[in-house]
Amino acid sequence: xxxxxxxxxxxxxxxxxxxxxxxxxxxxxxxxxxxxxxxxxxxxxxxxxxxxxxxxxxxxxxxxxxxxxxxxxxxxxxxxxxxxxxxxxxxxxxxxxxxxxxxx
Length: 104
Known about the structure:
The chain is an alpha+beta fold. It contains 5 helices and 3 strands; from the N terminus they run ααβααββα.
């Protein structure tokens, strides 16, 4: 798993917006067409596209084309990686680091 600061920032950016959290809530029940998300979120096409780009770039959501519409669903792998990331960056190291101040 890629734990670079750039990848980490993309994952947390996906979670730091109310609209994106609302979209994820809608996707919890399964795949949704963009047209359904637009209607249920009461937002425009360009606004949805902006939020879906961030969610897809984070790996948490995946998309597929069907005709002129895009369908979205939560990525099982992406959500597992987000959990691993959160655990990894919030778990203290087993090795005790020197925390002495420079004022000796």
